[in-house]
Amino acid sequence: MYLCDIGNSNVHFFKEGRIWAISVSEFQHFSPQEPLYFINVNASVKPWLAGKKHCVDLEPYFEFDTIYQGMGIDRVAACYTVKDGIVIDAGSAITVDIMSGGLHLGGYILPGLSATQEAYAAISPRLNVRINPNIALDALPQKTADAVSYGAIKPIIMMLSDTCKDKNIYLTGGDGKFLSRFFKHSVFDKALIFRGMQKALSQSGLVKEG
Amino acid sequence: MYLCDIGNSNVHFFKEGRIWAISVSEFQHFSPQEPLYFINVNASVKPWLAGKKHCVDLEPYFEFDTIYQGMGIDRVAACYTVKDGIVIDAGSAITVDIMSGGLHLGGYILPGLSATQEAYAAISPRLNVRINPNIALDALPQKTADAVSYGAIKPIIMMLSDTCKDKNIYLTGGDGKFLSRFFKHSVFDKALIFRGMQKALSQSGLVKEG
């Protein structure tokens, strides 16, 4: 049995505690030989998945309390095991969601770090610099490479600090570990989305436990 | 006589208090019949400008006190008439510079609003939404379009508030007027860069005043 989180560019697999990723185009050549429970935010993969043997969409089995309209199922899954705290999925976008007493209070979306780096590069060749994750955030930059790194990272940290205050923070995604170092009450959990999927799966009655 | 600010995509002209813009490619078909004093951050235009009649580079005439390395001449010009305060040029990038007692203390660069909108669109078709400048920044978003607008605008406002505190703020550039509405001690000056160029020109001795 696989759990499978289908994104816009990559597909993440979870099996027996192990996580790995393949590209969406590789995924479309994949024929599972055992049950594959998935969530999917990628519209282009939907027709292909519809007729696929062994593939089961977990989305209908999530019972999630929110008034947010059109929340991606990956965000729902990341929040699904968190009763109180801030859930941050720092991937190609950085989604930030606030959970309180098992209720989802809303959230927002920032461009991810690599998307931000590409945004600078598209503005001018002079701004096509590699973002330095170790840039000092308490000193004014004195050259362009630092001015870009500071401008890319500091707004994210300021926003998250403002949202999180003293609440617990649950981070996942490619840049989650990096961002976790800025926050005391934070936990980085690579498998956060899969934990949510496991919870939905066990509530669904699709598999017998034990 | 023209003043001329050559950027990466557009060229802004100033003459007798009037400001207008043409594209860089249009500019390369332009033959000035009178003196044109320019600043230029666009490397691709340099060879073309070098042999051009009537065209005079003002960059060597700026005397600017900073330890910042490689500061774009447009940023220097924007800061050149400001003794104390924060100088923000909100164009394709948002440059933020701090002046104190005529000294430049450093600065940083954020992606501009339209670059940010394009960054979201490149991440996922679901994030390809028009940024709403009137988004409420004090309420958690409850749908994706709001989550993007909030995530695009609020970090900029938080960064600028943190930098500016109670200092005077001088804004210019395409989104300068929009950003000025968030700050009490702010002035939007469309001609800020040209004022700097005028100051450099009058210090240069290139033209006789009177």
UniProtKB/TrEMBL annotation, chains A, B:
Enzyme class label: transferase
GO molecular function terms attached to this record: pantothenate kinase activity
EC nos: 2.7.1.33
Pathway: Cofactor biosynthesis; coenzyme A biosynthesis; CoA from (R)-pantothenate: step 1/5
Entries under Pfam families matching the protein: Pan_kinase (PF03309)
Record field: catalytic activity: (R)-pantothenate + ATP = (R)-4'-phosphopantothenate + ADP + H(+)
Record keywords, A-Z: ATP-binding, Coenzyme A biosynthesis, Cytoplasm, Kinase, Nucleotide-binding, Potassium, Transferase
InterPro entries xrefs: ATPase_NBD (IPR043129), Type_III_PanK (IPR004619)
Location(s) in or outside the cell: Cytoplasm
Chief subcellular location: cytoplasm
Family: Belongs to the type III pantothenate kinase family.
Stated name of the protein: Type III pantothenate kinase
